[in-house]
Amino acid sequence: MDKFVIKGPCKVRGQVSISGSKNSALPLLASTILFDEDVILENIPRVQDCNTMLNLLKSLGKIIKFSKNRRIVKISKAKRPKYFASYSIVKTMRAGILVLGPLVAKYHKSISSFPGGCILNGNSGRPIDLHLSALQKLGMKYSIKNGYIRASSKGKLKGTSIKFPTISVGASQQLIISSVLASGVSLISGLATEPEVKDLTNFLKKAGAKIKWVGKRTCRIIGVKKLKGIRYSVMGDRIETGTFCVAATLTKGKLKIKNFDPKLIQTELKILKKAGAKIKESKNQILIEGPKKIKNIRNIVTKEYGGFPTDLQPIFMVLLCKAEGISTITEKIFQGRFLHVMELQRLGAQISIKNAKAVINGNPNFGIGAEVMSSDLRASAALVLAGLTSKGITTISRVYHLDRGYEQFEKKLKKIGANIKRVSG
Ligand code: UD1
After folding, report:
1. Across-strand partners of 7?
2. CA of residue 94 to ligand 1 center, whole Å
3. What is the pLDDT of residues 223-282, one digit of tens each?
């Protein structure tokens, strides 16, 4: 298993180009199950989760062809479609569940493994009840046996009115994809409005789906017979962008961050400005410079889009470890998402957690290098940033978590001045 070895403190300077969004690419890839014509997706990030999703599509019979740099992928119709999403592929990735709806929508049957993915909620796990109950309302029947969801429908799924009781990004994507070829009209409310959900509806619309956002969280979808083949470029990754913004702010660095629309991360940029960062936004670019002293921030609360994203919670926590004074972050999406805290404490952080609220007693001299372990994807990135700002050597193990979602993270960091290397074994 690979490790990162970081010699700190390091300052990041220069420019970095943002990759395609993993969380957008995955539902787009899953939705290609609906297509008979070829789909060409550009700006696919070269990360493990996308490889896993492409392997899953291959196992379902789809024909996958990459461009030379593997950033463009063509997905063609399965000659002999299969309906079995195996545990061995789906176990590492939450988004594996996203093939269930499209398989039933297209072929009226599926045997799909329960998904894996980051453990973000301690013993509460990451349920899929919202996915299943919404698909049931479209006419899917299912039973659960040996860790598999055995699902079927009598012919086409049937459009209807569905209101999500709580907001879920994945369940919203699942239901939108599954309604596109359903008969009749679906009126879906209580949808997540994350940019990745909007990227999905834009993509499907371009392919001929009749989807209209008729309210802030409501879509009307009129079922169509088929989708037409298209070429589409995946949006940029807002979590990667946020991570590099924090890297600059944390290390008193200066970065030009390219290929991302700053309008999509206004909440995060506002907080970074409060912490003291100087930020200049232009079309698809952010210039960011870290302050001499980082100011503490009280009352960050993770929320659905528009609010502060849970995926950046561990990363901003590192910044606040280095601020002057007390900061707080309350986790409202995954209340158990604090596995990184113990590791940050090894580097000298003073953090206490009560009722999903982290109180961070910041110290401008934070951190001293130590051996730490990644627990999940975003926690891994947080530990890397903590390593950059810590004095001495920080060794981060289990970086396979990070490889699931950040494209060439250590290479990008090296280019902007970080002293980081990957060690195998
Ligand atoms: C997606 C993102 C993940 C991000 C999360 C929240 C992908 C591949 N992953 O995950 O990076 O952290 O959104 O922005 O895009 N829930 C249920 N039942 C369900 C589904 C969800 O109770 O059937 C709960 C979850 O436990 C959680 C909340 O709803 O507390 C939100 O989760 P959800 O938005 O579904 O996250 P994911 O789609 O899994």
Report:
1. 393
2. 9
3. 999 999 999 999 999 999 999 999 999 999 999 999 999 999 999 999 999 999 999 999
CA-angle at 305, arms to 22 and 93, nearest 5°:
30
152 and 198: one domain? yes
- 148 in the same domain as 261: no
Q: Give me ligand 1 centre to Cα 290, in Å.
A: 32
Helix spans in 223-325 (H): 238-250, 266-274, 313-321
Q: pTM of the predicted model, to two decimals?
A: 0.97
Torsion sign over Cα 217, 221, 227, 228:
negative
Find the distance separating the first CA and the last CA of the chain, reported in whole Å.
Answer: 5
Q: Quick one: 199 and 299 in the same domain?
A: no
* Token digits of residue 346: 């090894």
My answer on whether 277 and 220 are in the same domain is no
Residue 112 Cα to ligand 1 midpoint, Å, equals 18
Atom of ligand 1 at shortest distance to CA of 309? Answer: 14
From the CA of 128, give the closest atom in ligand 1.
23
Q: Whose CA is nearest to atom 38 of ligand 1?
A: 170
Pocket of ligand 1 (CB under 6 A): 23, 26, 94-95, 121, 126-131, 166, 168-171, 192, 196, 310-311, 333-334
Calculate the CA 371 to chain-centre distance: 26
Strand pairing report for 300-301 and 285-289: unpaired
Instruction: Specify whether 52 is located in the same domain as 111.
Output: yes
Answer yes or no: are the C-beta atoms of 97 and 117 closer than 8 Å: no
254/381 same-domain check: yes
Kindly list the catalytic residues. 118
